[in-house]
Amino acid sequence: MAEKVVIIGSGPAGWTAAIYAARASLEPLCIEGEMTQENWDLGRPPLGQLAITTEVENFPGFPSGNLESYLDDAIADDRRRIMGPHQKEGVSGPELMELMRQQAINFGTRTMMEDVVDVDFSQRPFILKTSNGETIEAQSVIVATGARANYLGLDSEKKFKNAGVSACAVCDGALPRFRDQPLVVVGGGDSAMEESDYLSKFGSKVYIVHRREEFRASKVMAERALKNPKIEVKWNSVIDEVLGDDEKGVTGVRIRSTEDDAKTEDIPASGYFAAIGHTPNTEFLKGHLEMNEKGYLKWSVPFRTNTSVEGVFAAGDVADDYYRQAITAAGTGCMAALDAERYLSLLE
Ligand code: FAD
What SUPFAM superfamilies does its record include (predicted)? Predict the structure, then answer.
């Protein structure tokens, strides 16, 4: 028998969709993604991008410190009576994702740890094929497969991930390890300009390392970065190596001139931010759903999560090249579940 709703992906978008769909008695099946080394290395593991990070300081509801100290005495007493004592330091990415997963399962979400490798949206019910060879039929589908950050692919980048190497200034820029320290951004597009500008609020100085002699960013973004007194551009340069040690993490970068291969320079820095774009996890959907030129799924109705195929919805980073935050992914996950619920009610 066909599933009422199948959710592909187990990041904040997928689990939020699952919580809403399960509470609406749609008995969702969440296909979480396969636990393989390749998926980890690519940055698209089960539980999503937050599974590969440390602290999450900007997801509402998880303040650091002793929660009871924030509460009015009567509410704190009540809370202790109902829930027991609470001492909690913020939340880590993996912990936040496990909590979302458990919340979805508690309401009856079923899960399977496979990748979806092929789909057929031309017939009803829809057909999904998984990496273990299973075929699943679905009346509606929510695609929440996220997007993975691009890195240069250096071994040293990999070694210091979460120890000074990041691909998200908005997520990590305000962390203590980056405050009042020199930072390096690699890239030359709008994201690199935006990330550098943002990081200049926290770092003592921001170096943009760019392989050409002009940016490909829009004029207005490039000018803003060039006028920022805290930003210095290293033109015609590529990152040769991220420098660091096991104790301190990133301590700098070695750059190499694109004009003179023998010319290198070491720049001291405690953070290295890759701003060279993202790749949406939509390879298996090519030819099945409309995408933009970068491969992001297109929403076909403003402020709805409908895709180009009726009954298939998209939530989270897979359809969002702009905000790319856990809370926005969760928000569109909620929207997708409500959209799917309405779609299914019209089928009855
Ligand atoms: P993702 O979290 O990317 O999840 C995608 C899911 O789809 C994964 O479960 C994956 O396994 C699955 N999947 C992919 N392909 C398939 C397939 N073919 N079949 C089945 N499953 C598949 N945001 C914040 O708000 N705060 C932060 O502090 C923060 N820190 C970050 C730190 C890092 C290092 C990174 C990389 C990102 C960070 N972000 C942060 C961004 C945030 O993680 C993303 O915006 C958010 O996770 C997007 O959620 P999503 O559900 O759309 O996709």
Answer: FAD/NAD(P)-binding domain
